[in-house]
Amino acid sequence: MQPSLDHIFALFVPVVEALGLSLVDVEWQSARGGARLAVYIARLGGSVSIADCEAVTLALGHEMEDTQVFPQSYTLEVSSPGLDRVLKRPHEFDIFQGRGATLWLFEPFCGKMECAGILQGRQGEHVLVHLTSGEIVTLPAALIRKTKLVFDMK
């Protein structure tokens, strides 16, 4: 039986953090030719290098051998989450603090269903965003339908 992705995520967090990185997400994809476990990592305030991906791959490989997480064969793929990632987990608002993002809402906030700005992290169950208008707003996390990072070529 395959463990849940939340279980795998919890298992991998200390391994990745011990290398000075943040675990962003894990994805499992079954395919006819074999399965793939994708692991996405980030470096707070910096970029992920190939050496970072190699170090995480080795560390997770040892962890997975020791715990025998998966009963079937798979390919482990470690990479950065990408420049225009859709945020999936609450902790990503902290990991990508300082990055530009567009947020789509379930209902209007200050008269708008969408807002854009710079992520400022979380405070409890709220997300702080420095809007392009210059205003800093505190959005209830439950109000956010989707958040996507915006790649800015400066």
Compose a concise summary of this entry.
By secondary structure, the chain is of the alpha+beta class.
Could you walk me through the main structural features you see in this protein, from its secondary elements to its overall organization?
- The protein has 154 residues and is an alpha+beta fold.
- Helices cover 23% and strands 40% of the residues.
- It has two domains: 5-79, RimP-like superfamily, N-terminal (GMP Synthetase, Chain A, domain 3, 2-Layer Sandwich); 92-149, SH3 type barrels (Roll), CATH 2.30.30.
- It has helices at 5-17, 50-67, 92-95, and strands at 22-29, 35-42, 74-79, 100-109, 112-123, 126-131, 136-140, 144-149.
- The strands form two sheets. Strands 7-6-5-4-8 form a five-stranded antiparallel β-sheet.
- The radius of gyration is 17 Å and the shape is elongated.
- The termini are far apart.
- The mean pLDDT is 89.
Secondary-structure topology with pairs:
Elements: H1 5-17, E1 22-29, E2 35-42, H2 50-67, E3 74-79, H3 92-95, E4 100-109, E5 112-123, E6 126-131, E7 136-140, E8 144-149
Parallel strand pairs: 2-3
Antiparallel strand pairs: 1-2, 4-5, 4-8, 5-6, 6-7
What are the salient characteristics of this protein?
single chain; 154 residues; alpha+beta; GMP Synthetase, Chain A, domain 3; SH3 type barrels; 2 domains; five-stranded antiparallel beta sheet; three-stranded mixed beta sheet; 8 strands; 40% strand; elongated
* Estimated share of beta-strand residues: 35-45%
Mean of residue pLDDT?
89
CATH topology of the largest domain: GMP Synthetase, Chain A, domain 3
Radius of gyration: 17 Å
Instruction: Give the ordered list of helices and strands.
Output: HEEHEHEEEEE
Number of domains: 2
Annotation field: number of helices:
3
Superfamily (CATH H level) name of the largest domain = RimP-like superfamily, N-terminal
Do you know the CATH architecture of the largest domain?
2-Layer Sandwich
> Fraction of residues in helices?
10-25%
- Secondary structure: number of strands: 8
Strand order, largest beta sheet = 7-6-5-4-8
Structural class: alpha+beta
> What best-fitting shape do the alpha-carbon axes yield?
elongated
**CATH top level class name of the largest domain:** Alpha Beta
Provide the low-confidence segments as ranges.
Answer: none
In this structure, how is the largest beta sheet organized?
A: 5 strands, antiparallel
> How far apart lie the N and C ends?
47 Å
